[in-house]
Amino acid sequence: MNDVEVKFGCARLPEAELAALASYAAKATWPTGFALYERGTPADGLFVVLRGRVVLRNRVKAGRGYVPMMVAEGEIFGLEGLAPDNVYMTDARADEETETYHLSSARFRAFLREQPQHAIALMGQVASEHAMLLGKLRELATQSVEQRLVAALARMARHGAFTASDGRITLSAAQYRLLCELIGATRESVTLVVNRLISQGLAERHGGDFVLAPPHTLFQRVEGDGLDGELRIPLTIEGNGHSRQATA
User: How is domain 15-139 classified at the CATH fold level?
Assistant: First the structure.
């Protein structure tokens, strides 16, 4: 991480702003697997996660999907609802028991009028998540499956449910499918990369579960920080108006 700055996540809304929202938003608790909304349905306002995790998914075809974002505590989703007469662009489902605030469009306008200092912080959070999505779009357009795998694992690591005390990520079969959807690649393509990591001692398979090295370890391998091994991943390093290709 010496020559390349990579931002795998975004900021989270501070406690002060969450407290300020309390008197404007509707609070709800959703059980695991509950669909908060579906793509194409009318959108209104925005949601803030207070506890748990929401997965935003676009269905590609039966049994497959693409996940643009996992939304954790202090993060926002459903922003389509701030545009007039808009519809939701993804399905939103609770990945575990989740608690949210919902701020309708009308209540959002009241929040802007009456709590401008907190509204500015809310807009900063919106900008942070927009920047993260733009970064992920760049990954899809310019990076290999290996590089996107590292980025996706880093995002999953931000959600403590996936990580052990040593930083390694343990994924069940369902979570492995989620990893593939975060990467935006077929299960076969991701499995080829994971099998290569297994051969390099950076991943293990335990029955139907996968255990992968901490993302920073994989990123060091991508950068080639002097670790042994034959895993070679092209990496574009940009700086001072120039770019060069490096391999791990």
Answer: Jelly Rolls (2.60.120)
Phi, psi of 53 (to 5 degrees): -155, 135
Ramachandran region, residue 164 (left: φ > 0; alpha: ψ -120 to 50; beta: rest): beta
- In angstroms, what CA-CA distances link 155 with 6, 136, 225, 228, 231? 11, 11, 22, 26, 22
DSSP secondary-structure letter at 42?
B
H-type alpha helices, 115-169: 116-142, 145-157
CATH 1.10.10.10 location in the chain: 143-247
pTM comes to 0.80
> Is the dihedral angle over the CA atoms 164, 232, 179, 81 positive or is it negative?
positive
Of the CA atoms within 13 Å of residue 16, those in its CB half-sphere come to: 6
CATH code 2.60.120.10 region(s) in the chain: 15-139
215-242 pLDDT tens trace: 888 887 766 543 333 333 333 333 444 4
Query: Distance between CA 170 and CA 12 in Å, rounded?
Result: 24
CA distance 126 to 121: 9
- Distance CA(23)–CA(12), nearest Å, equals 20
**23-81 pLDDT tens trace:** 999 999 999 999 999 999 999 999 999 999 999 999 877 667 899 999 999 999 999 99
Instruction: Give the 3-state secondary structure percentages of the chain, helix then strand then coil, rounded to 5.
Output: 40, 30, 35
Q: What is the CA radius of gyration of the chain?
A: 19
Domain 143-247 has CATH 3.40.50.1780: no
